[in-house]
User: Which sequence fits this backbone?
């Protein structure tokens, strides 16, 4: 696979040299000890200046039960810390009790005040309508504590609920790995993020505790711990092979813990829960629950407000008219991550809990952040990644440096990273094209250098954050566009790319999940066909598939070489308009295919955002005002998010000419 990736990169470079003639005149980057290439500096001028807030710029927090201690002790801390840092005002709206109609009314009554942005706590899917009204009135919206992905909201800053389920099941699996029996979830059955958590539990326990079955039904908590105790007690009585509970809302954990104590099942049936307020922590202390998991709520509001601020003030532009093309200049989502409280650390966690936020600190005069990659003069980097990197550095008043070979040379790349460690940079962004980079990444982190991965990820390394596209979401976007052409068809869709690559499989899963709904008569072939990182080879493969698969209706090209190769095969077979293709990347070759109609869409990740926020998050690693305890490092608690999903730009026949004309 490594060899294929290197061939792909060589092909990319060749095409980029043809189609990006202006880049050839720019001064090339130096090798591993160089400062940022002059090429990137000139390109970075295409990022505009960050603008200052107006004197009365106000951001709104909208929720039910706005005096809830969970909010007061967590969410409001992050919200106010960001406002103080940015010099803007805040406002809290919504009822002091659980009253959905009053909550919706409060949101709609706020619209005429034209706040600069609104954060909405999403406990109910019916909030999509007032959220859409806000957005249509020009008020950007960030969702939190849940999401409304089918609304018009700009960004979600919350925990990834599938990942929460994975974390909960990982801890629960330590107790259930050799057991046989059932695990039950108690929470809010009709809620989308509860189902995502459930999926994470199911996926993880299938591996960690194969003798355990997760019951499909999510039992109703009624948002009341006493009701949960009744439900859990009944399940203990009626389900003799019950071995575990997952409490997926705030009321569930305490209710489950109480039921286990009353039934004398502590140490026989094991429970985990979300949230880590006083009641949940008490259950972990006394052993009635084996772990409590809380999302880093302070980060959700801290970055939620900052992203809404960036909606108005960002220097990042993709075209000269992003709004007309429907291109958002902020990320799609921020996953804040979780804190896991177990019996081993619960006492220290309680003793060191931080009640407020600290002060943001200033950078050192020589504070330097490093970009590490192979082929550091690649026009794809120069025209995109370096623009965001330099824009963030200018804004924060820090220095940058680029390391790595000018060609494709993995050993030289790893050597450059390791040789940089003694220089003690403040942070490093690493382009992750190869799994073997986990070792040098870990060496950096162990030496005290925080690492952000991009253009791929190393989730099993010690990296602090990934700022890139979510590849499952990329598959969803591609299938959504393809589904417009296939919704009434019967037949097969084939993916061509790099079969053994993890993010390619994630993209495939997104395509499968989405077409199952949008084009139910279509089957996505399980096999990912090999591109060999060569568009001519893709043309041969696609041509053979067109001949041998008479019910073929669509192609998904999931690496840079696939799109052009698929487009050429469809033209040669006179199947344009009969078989439909989509692809990743939107450089010259892919855009040409969309222009001529041989592909119906091209999708590119917003690379400028990956580096802009990657550097800013590494900066926050040192300077953030957000604290969870007085000794986060000792408890292994990161003060920055787990990931930022930058989102994609979709290029179709309708907008391709305008995109090419206005591209920056």
Assistant:
């Amino acid at each position: 696979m490594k060899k294929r990736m290197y061939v792909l990169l060589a092909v990319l470079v060749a095409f980029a040299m043809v189609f990006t003639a202006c880049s050839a005149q720019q001064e090339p980057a130096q090798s591993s000890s160089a400062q940022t290439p002059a090429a990137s500096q000139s390109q970075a001028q295409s990022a505009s200046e960050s603008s200052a807030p107006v004197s009365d710029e106000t951001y709104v927090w909208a929720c039910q039960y706005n005096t809830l201690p969970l909010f007061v002790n967590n969410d409001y801390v992050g919200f106010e810390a960001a406002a103080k840092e940015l010099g803007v005002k805040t406002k809290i709206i919504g009822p002091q009790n659980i009253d959905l109609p009053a909550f919706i009314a409060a949101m709609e009554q706020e619209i005429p005040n034209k706040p600069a942005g609104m954060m909405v706590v999403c406990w109910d899917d019916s909030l999509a309508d007032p959220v859409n009204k806000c957005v249509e009135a020009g008020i950007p919206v960030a969702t939190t504590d849940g999401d409304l992905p089918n609304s018009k909201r700009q960004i979600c800053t919350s925990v990834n609920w599938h990942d929460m389920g994975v974390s909960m099941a990982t801890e629960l699996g330590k107790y259930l790995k050799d057991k046989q029996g059932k695990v039950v979830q108690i929470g809010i059955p009709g809620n989308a993020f509860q189902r995502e958590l459930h999926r994470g539990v199911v996926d993880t326990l299938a591996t960690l505790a194969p003798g355990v079955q997760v019951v499909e039904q999510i039992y109703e908590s009624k948002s009341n711990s006493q009701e949960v105790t009744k439900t859990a007690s009944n399940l203990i009585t009626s389900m003799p092979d019950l071995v575990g509970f997952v409490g997926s809302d705030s009321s569930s954990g305490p209710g489950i813990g109480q039921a286990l104590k009353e039934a004398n099942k502590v140490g026989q049936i094991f429970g985990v829960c979300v949230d880590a307020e006083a009641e949940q922590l008490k259950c972990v202390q006394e052993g009635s629950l084996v772990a409590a998991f809380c999302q880093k709520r302070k980060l959700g509001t801290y970055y939620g407000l900052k992203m809404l601020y960036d909606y108005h003030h960002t220097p990042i532009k993709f075209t000269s008219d992003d709004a007309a093309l429907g291109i958002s200049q902020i990320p799609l989502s921020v996953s804040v991550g979780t804190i896991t409280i177990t019996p081993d650390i619960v006492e220290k966690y309680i003793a060191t809990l931080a009640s407020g936020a600290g002060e943001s600190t200033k950078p050192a005069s020589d504070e330097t952040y490093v970009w590490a990659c192979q082929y550091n003069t690649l026009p794809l980097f120069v025209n995109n990644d370096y623009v965001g990197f330099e824009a963030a550095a200018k804004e924060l008043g820090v220095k940058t440096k680029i390391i790595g070979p000018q060609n494709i040379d993995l050993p030289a790349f790893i050597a450059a990273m390791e040789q940089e460690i003694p220089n003690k940079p403040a942070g490093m962004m690493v382009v992750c094209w190869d799994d073997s980079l986990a070792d040098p990444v870990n060496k950096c982190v162990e030496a005290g250098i925080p690492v952000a991965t991009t253009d791929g990820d190393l989730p099993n390394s010690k990296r602090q954050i990934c700022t890139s596209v979510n590849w499952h979401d990329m598959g969803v976007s591609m299938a959504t566009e393809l589904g417009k052409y296939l919704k009434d068809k019967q037949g097969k869709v084939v993916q061509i790319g790099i079969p053994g690559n993890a993010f390619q499989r994630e993209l495939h899963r997104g395509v499968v999940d989405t077409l199952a709904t949008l084009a139910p008569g279509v089957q996505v072939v399980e096999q990912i066909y090999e591109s060999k990182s060569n568009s001519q080879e893709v043309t041969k493969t696609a041509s053979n598939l067109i001949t041998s698969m008479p019910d073929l209706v669509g192609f998904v090209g999931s690496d840079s070489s696939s799109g052009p190769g698929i487009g050429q095969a469809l033209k040669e077979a006179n199947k344009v308009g009969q078989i439909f293709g989509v692809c990743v990347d939107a450089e010259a070759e892919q855009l040409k295919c969309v222009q001529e109609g041989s592909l119906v869409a091209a999708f590119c990740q917003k690379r400028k955002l990956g580096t802009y926020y990657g550097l800013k998050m590494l900066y926050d690693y040192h300077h953030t005002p957000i604290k969870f305890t007085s000794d986060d490092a000792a408890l292994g608690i990161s003060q920055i998010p787990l990931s930022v999903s930058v989102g994609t730009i979709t290029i179709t026949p309708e907008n391709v000419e305008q995109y090419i004309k206005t591209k920056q």
